[in-house]
Specification:
single chain; 8 helices; globular; two-stranded antiparallel ribbon; alpha/beta; Rossmann fold; DNA polymerase, domain 1; 8 strands; 6-stranded parallel beta sheet
Length: 227
């Protein structure tokens, strides 16, 4: 069997910049400023890290940011739920056929590995009914550093399936250099997909196990074949 861990933004869906706007609005309401959000690269970061990076860059003490984090999270998630427009989003190429194919197999377990807070992840996926493919995962609520997410996903897979997946029986699918680095740090193969904000050239330099332009013809890709 194989455990396949999918990133969300830039891998499964493109929100058209709406999450960045929601973050900026929430930061302005809670902190009175949004920091260097226009130039900050969200790719692969956990939501908690995004808030801390932006607010400490604006001169706020880290401890102050951490204390206010729950309020900021609630404000952001309410804004995202209220304003996220399905018509301004898109499911990325090949995703729905691939997920339909994988979920039908009895030798594949699907899960999420994302820096999104779980409620935010579920809000985003709900707009195109993609939550039905993912019963569990690891999320930005769990850790600050993305590299700490895979063991949590593997533990939740054990609870869900009563099977312990070893790193080589696991696959991370993502679009950023932090996805590749996360996989490498945990000894997990990685399929990098160049559908996010990171170019194929930059991804290739990180030496993922495999790389594709998109997932439109990935059903038979060797990355998805169990050992």
């Amino acid at each position: 069997m194989k455990l396949i861990l999918f990133d969300i933004d830039g891998t499964l869906i493109d929100c058209g910049g709406q999450a960045r706007v929601a973050f900026g609005q929430a930061l302005e309401r809670v902190f009175g400023e949004s920091g260097p959000i226009d130039t900050y690269d969200f790719s692969g970061k956990t939501d908690t890290r995004i808030v801390i990076d932006l607010m400490t860059a604006a001169g706020r003490p880290r401890d102050e940011v951490l204390v206010t984090l729950p309020q900021l999270r609630d404000e952001y998630l309410a804004t995202l739920q209220r304003n996220l427009d399905r018509e301004r989003m898109k499911v990325l190429p090949g995703i729905e056929p691939l997920l339909e194919h994988l979920v039908a197999r009895d030798d594949i377990v699907l899960a999420l590995l994302t820096g999104n807070w779980e409620r935010g992840a579920r809000i985003k996926l709900s707009r195109h009914d993609l939550n039905r493919y993912f019963a569990f995962g690891s999320f930005g609520d769990d850790v600050f550093d993305r590299n700490d997410l895979p063991p949590i996903a593997i533990e939740r897979a054990l609870r869900a399936t009563q099977r312990r997946f070893h790193p080589q029986e696991t696959l991370i699918v993502g679009d950023s250099i932090l996805d590749v680095g996360c996989a490498r740090a945990n000894g997990i193969p990685c399929l990098a997909v160049a559908t996010g904000r990171t170019s194929r050239t930059v991804l290739e330099a990180e030496q993922p196990t495999w790389i594709v332009d998109d997932l439109s013809s990935a059903i038979d890709h060797p990355a998805f074949v169990p050992l």
